[in-house]
Amino acid sequence: MNAAPHSTATWKTKRHTKGGLEMERILTKEQKMKVKKICQEYPVWKEKLKHIRIPKENGEWDDPVCEEVIKRNIYECKIQSFEEAIKDAVGESMAPYIIKGLTTKTNYHNLRLIDGIPCGYRQYYDYREEAYIFISQKEHMFL
Fold it and tell me: Has residue 57 got a pLDDT over 50?
């Protein structure tokens, strides 16, 4: 008997487009792990952004201040790119729930009880997988 060649584990996501066609997208295990890491970094970016201060002394800009401005800009861009990727994937109304679920590891049941997520269990996890794919496609923006 010939054994099947070893293949990399994949996650398949099926979503219907407006035209009614079914699309299938695949993420490898490695891609999904990268995306999960990006999702775990999102709260860290937001926290670091809170602590970056832009001091001005007599209106002069010196190198440490410029470094702080650059750091602040980097975190703001990462946060904005992450949020836009989620909105592109799942829409404006579902984005806050998906962002919370992905970045805080909050499960569907808690989102339903605490936040009142306006969709069912299966639909939430379909949205979440679609968000993983969009983040994976824009991964270069978060490095």
Answer: yes
